[in-house]
Design goal:
alpha/beta, 5-stranded parallel beta sheet, 4-stranded parallel beta sheet, 11 strands, 41% helix, globular
Length: 295
């Protein structure tokens, strides 16, 4: 009898421990994500998610990642499970994940639906504001059991962001066109994190109000908007003109004042911890735009 009671007590203790170990957070899709114990085998379905997991202190727990997961350096050694167009579901299953981090803007609805049939907790990561990056780091840290590290990283990000906002909030506005592709012309609206970086720096995205996240715009529409600055990342295809596209239009404000800005698109559009760094660099560039205004 005593043995049975002892056994029952042990089961109750184990059950209580399991309940205490369970962690629930709300992801960026507004869904509750629960792990019964800290996640030890995590698959990242986007490069920015890989960066977030490392920042949260869980780099060693990431067992699979998508292509272009190249930061930090250790991320390059993580086995790949596919690309933004194809996921190797057999590879995913073989890695036996206990948490999967997906990106709605980068993974297709079909891919996410496939992953959710596996019965593994799925965290949707979709930071659209710089402040949400720190929130993601913190919540992932809770799921990973790396709370202190994640909290420290999140605090540092918030501190740096607050400093940028405090420094540039009152600066004279700069109208900006962000060119993300040349032929045809594509830009980003205010739902993408790069536009929040522009806002923090005292800028205004001239196409921010468009409904599509990455809309195509006409050359005539950009000329009509006459932005004070035009920014673009490095040319992926050397045959495309990049910022040189605008040089013939001498009467444009951005061209007249020498405000064709080369930016690090990876830092600005990949919604991970380095976006704060990208914002700081952009703020310096937009301050130069202000200084080039006619006296």
């Amino acid at each position: 009898m005593r043995a049975r009671l002892a056994y029952a007590a042990a089961l109750l203790a184990l059950a209580a421990g399991s309940v205490q170990a369970a962690v629930t957070v709300v992801d960026d899709a507004g869904r509750r994500v629960t792990v019964q114990q800290p996640a030890r085998r995590v698959i990242s379905m986007a490069p920015h998610a890989t960066e977030l997991l490392f920042a949260a202190g869980g780099g060693k727990q990431v067992v699979g990642a998508m292509n272009y997961s190249d930061y930090p350096e250790a991320a390059k050694k993580i086995p790949l499970v596919g690309s933004n167009s194809v996921i190797d579901m057999e590879r995913v299953l073989a890695l036996k994940p206990d948490l999967i981090v997906v990106w709605h803007s980068g993974n297709t609805a079909r891919q996410i639906a496939q992953l959710e049939t596996l019965g593994v907790p799925v965290f949707h990561s979709e930071p659209r504001r710089l402040a949400q990056v720190a929130d993601n780091v913190e919540r992932l840290g809770q799921l990973l059991g790396t709370g202190p590290t994640a909290t420290g990283a999140a605090t540092a990000l918030r501190t740096r962001l607050a400093a940028l906002e405090g420094r540039y909030a009152g600066r004279a506005p700069v109208t900006v066109f962000y060119q993300i592709w040349d032929q045809p012309l594509y830009t980003l609206n205010d739902a993408q994190i790069a536009s929040d970086a522009i806002r923090v720096c005292g800028g205004r995205n001239v196409f921010g109000a468009l409904k599509v996240v990455a809309p195509e715009v006409s050359l005539e529409a950009v000329l009509a908007a006459d932005p004070e600055a035009i920014m673009a990342g490095k040319r992926i295809d050397p045959a495309n003109p990049g910022l040189k596209l605008w040089e013939p239009y001498k009467t444009m404000t951005a061209v007249k004042r020498g405000n064709l800005l080369k930016v690090n698109g990876e830092l600005l559009t990949r919604p991970g911890p380095r976006t704060i760094e990208g914002a700081a660099l952009l703020c310096e560039q937009l301050e130069g735009v202000r200084q080039r205004r006619p006296k």
